[in-house]
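Sequence only, no structure available. Ideas?
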Amino acid sequence: MWRRLINTCIEIIYPKACVVCKIKLKDRPAIDNFVCLDCWGKIKRNLPPFCLHCGRHLAASNFIKNICPGCVKQPLHFDRAFSVTRYEGVIRELIHEFKYRSKDYLGVTLSRLMIEFVREYDIPMDFIDFIVPVPLYKTRLREREFNQAQILSNYIAGEFNKTVLPDSLMRSRNTKTQTELEMDERLLNVKNSFSVAKKDNIKGKNLLLVDDVLTTAATSSEAAYALKNAGANIVFVLTLAN
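Reply:
I predicted one. Tokens follow.
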């Protein structure tokens, strides 16, 4: 709590600067007074055609199958995933500032990208009963003081008049950071790492699972597996980047 309070005070005392390029924002147009328009314009969107399973951009050689080689080799437990941007450059820097440098206020800015994507590609939000953020393990949540997936979920839910279920899906054990592991190791690392506390809330429901980044999709797949074992009907995944 104190760390977040100190960071907020610093933001108030010192002149606003772009979170990415650090250029002062006085008299410069910016998104939410956090990101200058030059940096915002450099964010690389994830563009169609999309893999019909993991949501990644498809190379020309995969147009006919409409599914990427990774999904052919490794079936995933969610029904379909959507990712908004490519995890590189500006968006990578923004996500790091958001997650690891206590700038939880960036959630409102980053969620704008997700909301715009939902509208542009007609993701069927009317079909969704509840939004479920991918949870952090309790020790990691204490260290970070917030769950970035829940912040994003709250903004998306508010925009589309949906309810967030923050306590139904839980991390039942701590896991290593996925970024340090290879694909096979990631799958083993997250295996059986999720549990569902309130099964009655999700039984027969269509869910939107929200997280910040989808790389190998191991985490989202394992979370979807737990939800489906608890009775969920359809599980879609929406992430800020892949």
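Strands lie at 30-31, 35-36, 80-85, 130-133, 163-164, 169-171, 194-196, 207-213, 235-241.
Hope that gets you unstuck.
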